[in-house]
């Protein structure tokens, strides 16, 4: 039960969804499906509000949808709540401008995989903001 408490506290303490998901990875090993369902309902509420506060936070989405994120939890546990959250992640990800999609991912072991060079990412994001500001 000590580790379960640790992961519950870690989940509650984190601000970022990717870090909350890491806590859920740990918690899922010790909690029942019903307990995970409650946590994921809370996670989903935060996720749905995310575009209001940080509309271009592609790092969180890239982590959540990576093979190490929600797909790994789905593969390991098969809980419908993970599928539901992944569907919402994908919807919000697709709603973001192209400039913020497809920069990196993580493999199933959590190792970062760059899909674009840092300079490509920087150029795409700078071009996007320049077009928004009319420069």
If you had to describe this structure to a student in words, what would you say it looks like?
This protein is mostly helical and 135 residues long. It is built from 7 helices and 2 strands, in the order ααααααββα. The protein has a two-stranded antiparallel ribbon with strand order 1-2. Helix 1 runs antiparallel to helix 2, helix 2 packs antiparallel against helix 3 and helix 3 packs parallel to helix 6. The longest helix has 21 residues. It starts with a helix and ends with a helix. The mean pLDDT is 95.
Number of helices: 7
Main sheet: strands, sense, barrel:
2 strands, antiparallel
User: What is the residue-mean pLDDT, rounded to a whole number?
Assistant: 95
How far the N terminus sits from the C terminus, by CA atoms, comes to: 56 Å
Q: What proportion strand?
A: under 5%
Looking at the structure, what is the overall shape? elongated
Note the main attributes of this structure:
135 residues; elongated; mainly alpha; 68% helix; two-stranded antiparallel sheet
Give a nutshell description of this structure.
The protein has 7 helices and 2 strands; from the N terminus they run ααααααββα.
Write the layout of secondary structure elements.
Blueprint: H1 2-13, H2 17-27, H3 33-53, H4 58-65, H5 70-77, H6 80-95, E1 104-106, E2 112-114, H7 118-133
Antiparallel strand pairs: 1-2
